[in-house]
């Protein structure tokens, strides 16, 4: 066997090191994305299980196709109350400062409150177009793994741990006119929300 050229050995080692430095962050990125997706799906399933236990007075829809991606959960109650719920899997402490959501003391990468508000407005406008009257839609941001120290709405969006979701929904008042108009269109509303293909609302 011939003698190895030290320069070649060093060059190869340096090249491998540079390649590793480039590849490892990419691998870490995709692993984090995969872990986030898994946790997100688990959060949706956890909240979905709570909602699926509600009475038959509730129309419970999951993964409703909205204009900016799927809405985690939409619920229409036969007494006219309507809910839009977004779920998050972040762990730690969820708090608020000056009207801004904080997760472990920092602003989240995405504006979860704004995302939920957009979905609330979209569902409101879709139902208004069908019913001929604008419903009030209660929106909530629900965490499954975090302690939520917030005790008031942020921009009219409730923020809570999943343990308090049913209690929060129970506080929503009856909407007589929405109930009257939605009753005969119950199945049509279900199909409209499930099969809307992300159509834009009047506000969009």
Describe this structure in words.
- With 204 residues, the protein is of the alpha/beta class.
- The protein has a single domain (34-194), classed as 3-Layer(aba) Sandwich (Restriction Endonuclease).
- 44% of the residues lie in helices and 27% in strands.
- The chain contains five helices and six strands; from the N terminus they run H-E-E-E-E-H-E-E-H-H-H.
- The protein has helices at 6-52, 112-131, 165-170, 176-182, 186-194; strands at 58-66, 69-77, 82-97, 100-103, 137-148, 157-161.
- Strands 1, 2, 3, 4, 5 and 6 form a six-stranded mixed β-sheet that branches.
- The chain is elongated, with a radius of gyration of 23 Å.
Quick structural summary:
44% of the residues lie in helices and 27% in strands.
Q: Could you name the CATH class?
A: Alpha Beta
Count of discrete structural domains: 1
**Distance N to C terminus:** 72 Å
Radius of gyration: 23 Å
Would you tell me the overall average pLDDT?
A: 87
Question: What is the share of helical residues?
Answer: 40-55%
Low-confidence stretches: 29-36
CATH architecture: 3-Layer(aba) Sandwich
> Which secondary-structure class do the elements indicate?
alpha/beta
Order of secondary-structure elements: HEEEEHEEHHH
Query: Biggest sheet: strands, sense, closure?
Result: 6 strands, mixed
State which percent range the strand residues make up.
Answer: 25-35%
The helix count comes to 5
Task: Characterize the quaternary organization of these chains.
Answer: single chain
Shape: elongated
CATH topology, what is it called?
Answer: Restriction Endonuclease
